[in-house]
## 1
Amino acid sequence: MEIPIPAVKLKPDMILKILQIMVKHEDDSDIMRSQIVLSYRNKSSRIDEPSEKNILRAVTFPSLRKLGLIEGEGKEIKLTPNARNLLRVYKLRGMPGYKRKLSKLIYVTDKKNGQILHTLGDLKKKNGGIIPKDVFLSELKRKYKLKTEIDERILKDRMKRWFLYLFFVSFVNYANSNIQLNDVQVNACLKENLIKISKKKFVKTLIQEYNYLKNREKGLTYVPIPMLRDAVCKCFEKEGMMNEDFYEYLRSIERETKDYTILFSQPMLREEGGMFINERYFYYVSIYSKKGD
Amino acid sequence: MVGRKREWATLVRRLKSAFRGTSCKFIVLLGAYGIGKSFTLEKLYSRFKQNEIEEFKGTLVVRTTITGAPIRAMDSEPKPKFGLDFVTRLFFNIGLDQLQQIAKKVKIDDVPNINQNIRIIFNKLKAGDEECFSILTGEVASARDIKSFGLKSGIKDSSTALRYLFDFQRILKASGYDNFLVMLDEFEYVISTLGEKKITHVLNTFKEVFDQFSLSEGREPGRMTKIVFLFASSPGGWERLIRLVKTSEKKTGGGGIAPFYDRINSLDFITLAPFSLEDTKELIKSRLDIHRANKPPDPFFPFTNESIELIHELGERVPRKILEYCDILLEEAAEQGLKRITAMDAKKILEKFRLYPQKARTSEGK
């Protein structure tokens, strides 16, 4: 049975360091990898050193990918706007700012995978503010329709790891065997991370960046959505636009106006970084101007 | 052709330019799934056959034998020798009748610098011998059969196949054809289903054809018919090609797939845009007209303006989806005895088929 809680094996306090390594050695995949392995081993409390394969392919990259911080495979792995945003915020506002930004990422990841915060919220209302751990576990088992012992073991393992993240950004606390959900923290995170960009400005930037990208190769009209996303997020770096903000804006704008038409197209094979619209997955975008035609 | 005035004009312009030019051409027609690439190629083919455009006269166009559609770039089971497969398919799709007509226009023995085997084959075609057509299409392979035709060998590998093609271009020129248009649909399957080595081999085959003409023109101008390739591809396929070009440039410093790509002029890309609302209306009207016995005062009947707007929105401005939704709505409306299909009716019917998404933004709200 599928358990939708994110399988993130990397501890949250290691994310920042790893992102810093990745951005420093962006152009050299081999050095980047060796530095990640070194950093991980320095922090690891295991007696037997974890292997490079385990560190990179089992722990680090899958976790970062799940959080929307990296995309691509092998030597093509690169940081997403989410990752760059986190690094930028850390540089400007230190750990408090970084954690606030990370909290939004964790909120969004949770919403897309498992909705633990939502479940905790429901239970909090039902149980008068207290959420016993066993009640929470039972609720998850019921929600995910888990029946076997193996499923339960996987659930507990995933929960334990995911709770490290929720705890790291103060979404939850523990009090004896009870879980405390910090609604105030969750709401503050959403409020703080609202970006203030008008749709008009977004559309203008979108078209500007699209026109630039489509001219990068002859005959191109279709631009990969993640490529356009990275370019637009870079333009709105100061405002702190993240991946999800970009997708939300893109979904919300008019597909056809008197000035342009936007067409989303599906990929041949499933590719990372696209987006779902009405349950269909799109990877390319093309924008057709109606002016001066 | 509904809604494609600009793209059609560009396509015709690029083809005219290609036919007037002095080198082979690669022209690329790009568009998302369902946007009308195959339909455009069909229309182009029929315009050629009907000689509707002056500058298209004197051009041989390849077609399949069943539907008249352009040939697919990729068969469902790719053959191991692409050049051999490609050339034999070309001959198959030109067809026996057309090849005989071409042969009859030419004194085959007077065409210089062609292979003796092809001379024999075309003389036989000219004389009405139909069986040697199977040599050109690769259906005859045994040494005994080949010998029975008086030939030394058949087309057994890509290299031989390409030589046959080049010699055919000479015969074609002698018969009065200046240009040979080869339309290749679903080109993305070549890019997406094969590994890099195979893709390089396929594209280099096209490049070789391209270059052979230039070489021949340099040595003996006016002796070969020029081939113009028109590739139709999805954006995904083309994007993958570009990525492979970049990778191969890094690996080889300019070899691999890059030489094929470099031979495509920036002007020779035509992209099919999504439909405007007017295009959608025109498409729906033209399809309804085909099936009507009598024309009602409202050309869009039984649809309303609002239901058309809804179809346009939900169909994402893509002709195939627009027509699919229209078909469903017309059938269901007939079943339900609806006299008109309003936006509300359309929504209910499409919901029944789970084609109306929960969070769809529709024209209803406007």
## 2
Amino acid sequence: MTIANSNIKFKISCKEDFEALFRQHYSVLCSYANKFIDDIDASEEIVQDLFCNLWNNREKLEISSIKSYLFRAVRNSCFNLIKHINIREEYKTFNESEIKLDEDKIDDNIDASELEVKIRETIELMPPERKKVFIMSRFEGLKYKEIAERQNISIKTVENQMGKAIKFLKEQLSDYIILAFVAFLEFIYKILNL
Amino acid sequence: MNLNNQNIDHDLLMAYLLGEATDDQREKVDVWLRESKDNQIYLDELEQIWIETGKLDPAPILVDIDSAWSKVSELLNFEENNKVVELKPKIKKDNSNKLFRIAAIFLLIAASMFIITHFIGSPTEQTLTSELEIVEDTLPDGSLIALNINSKIIFPEEFNDDTREINLEGEAFFNVSHDKEKPFIIHSEDANIKVLGTSFNVKAYQDMLEVEVVVESGTIMLFGVLENGDTSSVILNQGEKGIFDKKEKKARKISESVDDEIFWNRRKLIFEETELLKVFEILEKSYNVKILVNNPSIMNCIYTATFIDNNIDDILQVIKESYKLSIIKENNTYTIDGEGC
């Protein structure tokens, strides 16, 4: 049951639709929150609270674009959290102008390409250890040795997991990549005037 | 451009792309690349995928959607999907039907087991077999296994939610990755071994009367189900050895500590003009010991030797004589001193 993102006023009426919405966006919303606050547990809490509020107020809310709503709500919660922490600690690491600057970035994620969505889905489908290893390598920039130490596994296991990860990505993305690769080739040929 | 690439491991290709490959590995890939232009194209495709994944913004993080949903679901008081239905046994005084009912229940269980194992078997079962060479591999959960010769394990492509179960025939050394929620269970005929995260050796050949287990690190439970339904079990800690008697289906511990019994696993070590720094690193990893060096210039010494089927004490003895070192051993820690190079 997929939720269509259209301009029709959106109302969540049943639990199944709500669960589908949750599962579809949970991961990317947590990743988005993590960008601001760099704390996975806090990010998850923010997103979970958001969905709870969404459900509890579903009668009152009329949302035109559910994706924009979710991203904006996460961002606002993050800023509130940061302000709250800053006030508590009595010094401001983020000042008002820095927070306002980020408002320009808000729309960057909303229209993710089909390829990006597919990549996220594929990573999501990996078994936990493989996902962790891949994320640590690709997005945290860690070397195999560091990953092995942090995860308490052997380097051979890291090699193995990375091999399986790329193989899986290739299988899942083959259609999309061909398009991207062809476009890349065309670009190169154009430059070389072939 | 969809190539069927079975002649090279993706492990090697990835290590190569990321600059993590050893000289050996790099060479293997270079040779493979020279074999055909298609191979180079395949590698380029993998690189393309790597590049594309890097463009993701925000960068993905590891979250468990299922447990997050459970949490939210609970907070919002949604109905749980699995309701536990309690069966209240009827307390009848009439005993004449008892035997009949017991037989019927056993029959039902037997029939269910038959159906489950024969018809709803796992279509994604994988087998790892070794014949004349030791075979090493990684299981779906990241656990490492080394199969001694003439051995075999059967395991699913992905472990299910509650446990990680595999079947073993022969001898294998396991290094099980930690997972409190999902115990790792090894079945070998009637013997079972349950672990959470440990390294140990299992010897379970068909023609032997017993299954032997030696624990290198951690704790395991060796158990079997007796005729009358009771479980015979024994807990083995680091350094302990236990056996499972296949005839009597009983498990027991047979000695308190074993030293270096599990060295078939590291049969061959080759050092060719290797710095002692590297040599000691390799020894630490292979034998699970700690090596402390008092004089740092010892690390610079260059060493060449091949060790086959040796234990750590013998190896260090040989190295000690080569460079006039002194070695003090305490439990699993070796302290080395001497003039360096």
